[in-house]
Amino acid sequence: MQLTIIVPTRNEAPNVAELVARVGAAVHGVDAELLFVDDSTDDTPDRVREAAAHAPLSVRLVHRDDPVGGLGGAVLEGLAAARADVCVVMDGDLQHPPETIPALLDRHVAGDVDLVVASRYQPGGSNGGLADGRRVLVSRLSTMLTKAMFPIRLREVSDPMTGFFLVDRRAVNLEALRPRGYKILLEVLARKTMRAAEVPFVFDGRHGGQSKATFRQGAHFLGQLWGLRFGKMSLFAVIGGLGAVVNIAIVWLLTALGVNYIVAAVVAAEATIVGNFLLIERFVFQDMRAEASGVWRRFATSFAFNNVEALVRIPIMALMVGTWNITAVLATAITLALAFVVRFVFHSLVVYAPRKAGRPSAARQLIDALDEQAMSPGEL
Ligand SMILES: Nc1nc2c(ncn2[C@@H]2O[C@H](COP(=O)(O)OP(=O)(O)OP(=O)(O)O)[C@@H](O)[C@H]2O)c(=O)[nH]1
Ligand SMILES: [Mg+2]
User: Fold this and answer.
1) Which residues line ligand 1 (CB under 6 A)?
2) Ligand minimally distant from the alpha carbon of residue 182
3) Ligand 2 geometric centre to CA of 93 (Å)
4) Is the C or the N end of the chain the one with fewer CB within 10 Å?
């Protein structure tokens, strides 16, 4: 089978017959199937079965009684259940014209990309079908925000918020995608550098039925964006913060037991460094371990870095207090913040660096690696 067209639906009964007819006509001559992943409470499933009976292509229905992950979850389930590796994802309300499918397919057949995005913002495309000015504004602003947060990953993509795209699922790690996203394309794009292209399309008005877009989804989207962008770094920060608390607790405990405070501080620092390493191994950089050097080497590098950092930070702090005349507390705060960034960058780029990598220019490599690691998602 050449192509699976995945359509997530929730209460789209009035649109099913027309959708099936138009998709059938659009992919005439292609070995394709149409796969509905349905979370409806209306009679959408009946409409799908009716339409399937005399459709010009194979029509399948996956109805979910437990709609895990909502729209995003439905798309993921469709990608997993598809008979073809090449999948088109589109809405079921005919805002995404089925007549654009051949253009997506043709672009993919050229062979140089794994993802073809149907874009409202390419010449020839349009956003005219959005319900009102407010929706246009929200859509524009969220697109701008998204692009600003992923300037490198989304370089090639003008419409990362579209729900209409073709993806070759062999190029996607389905297990790594989280259905939390209403915008599953964003998950796909943000997690991995994809070879992507775009074709324009005209976003139509809704054919029938009701919109499911809500304010809650908007808030959800911001959460998704935040998680994708800062996931790894915020986890790293949380673990670092936890380490600081444990550090203080150990010093307190040991000194209370009568241990010399310098000895207590050293024991606490080393214990925290080891604990920190174990936690970031497990929770922050777990996706990079397989390609990095062995665990003992990673530990040695991380351990050495943290000790050097602690040794260097204190004289720098003293220097700052001496030359800038700032308080010791402020100097501590500044050096700790700086140390956090340096530590994160060092772990991303050195401790967990892939064993061997293609070597473009050093600057390019640095930027790519930062974009890849510092900003890639992390999950607890
Ligand atoms: N399976 C499934 N599909 C959903 C869910 N929520 C929305 N959809 C489908 O996802 C597609 C997009 O939803 P829409 O309500 O059209 O969202 P929108 O296009 O942003 O909003 P409008 O412009 O008002 O149409 C439609 O085919 C919906 O039926 C869900 O929870 N589960
Ligand atoms: Mg819609």
Assistant:
1) 8-10, 12, 37-39, 67, 70-71, 74, 91-93, 95, 131, 163, 206, 211-213
2) 1
3) 6
4) C
**pLDDT, the chain, mean:** 87
The pLDDT of residue 129 is above 80: no
Local confidence band at 305 (pLDDT 50, 70, 90 cut-offs)? very high
Closest CA to 9 of 29, 31, 38, 30: 38
Q: Are 350 and 301 in contact (CB under 8 A)?
A: yes
How many beta carbons lie within 10 A of that of residue 89, not counting itself?
Answer: 27
User: Hey, how many other C-beta atoms are within 10 angstroms of the C-beta on 320?
Assistant: 18
- DSSP assignment letter at 205: P
- At 194, phi and psi to the nearest 5? -110, 150
Would the pLDDT of 106 be above 90?
A: yes
The answer to whether residue 212 scores a pLDDT higher than 60 is yes
What gap in Å lies between CA 117 and CA 60, rounded to an integer?
A: 24
Q: pLDDT at residue 379 above 60? A: no
Instruction: Indicate the top mutation candidate among 15, 93, 217 to test ligand 1's pocket, ranked by most ligand atoms within 8 A of CB.
Output: 93
Residue type present at position 83: R
The token pair that represents 250 in the structure block: 């150990």
Q: How far is the CA of 182 from the centre of ligand 1 (A)?
A: 9
Contact 43, 61 (CB under 8 A): no
- For residue 380, what pLDDT band results from cuts at 50, 70 and 90? very low
Q: Which two tokens stand for residue 172?
A: 């996607």
216: its two tokens: 């809650």
Q: How confident is the model at residue 202 (pLDDT cuts 50, 70, 90)?
A: very high
Task: Give the pLDDT score at 216.
Answer: 76
Shortest-distance ligand to the CA of residue 130? 1
- The Cα diameter of the chain in Å comes to 85
- Name the nearest CA neighbour of 230 among 379, 376, 341, 380: 376
The closest ligand to the CA of 36 turns out to be: 1
Residue scoring higher pLDDT (340 or 302): 302
Q: Provide mean pLDDT across the span 203-216.
A: 81
